[in-house]
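User: Hey, my collaborator sent me this sequence without any context and asked if I could get a structure. I don't really work with proteins. Can you help?
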Amino acid sequence: MDDYSYRLKIIVTNPGDDDMDGPNATRFELQTTMDDCNVHGWFNVFQSVLRAQGFSDKVIMTGATQLAFNEQRDLKMMEEVASFFGLTLDEFNEG
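Assistant: No problem. I've predicted the 3D structure and written it out in structure-token form, which is a compact way to encode the shape of the chain:
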């Protein structure tokens, strides 16, 4: 594998609400440098961003699963991944 390095900077800005009871203006910045990072490392970076935005681990896991297993993916590939984890794809195999 070739050596590589990525520098990732994500800035999320919320201008706040004019309402006195609304949220204040906020700015969230995440910056990281990743060398030879695998898919798990990338997932952890984006998981941190989602957590900072208030998403629970259950919602993050559900979203990741929905990205991996949906009608727009190749059924054979989904079956291979499911088999690796001992899962079944009943909803995709119904006649």
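In plain terms: The first helix runs from residue 39 to 52. You can pass these tokens on to your collaborator as they are.
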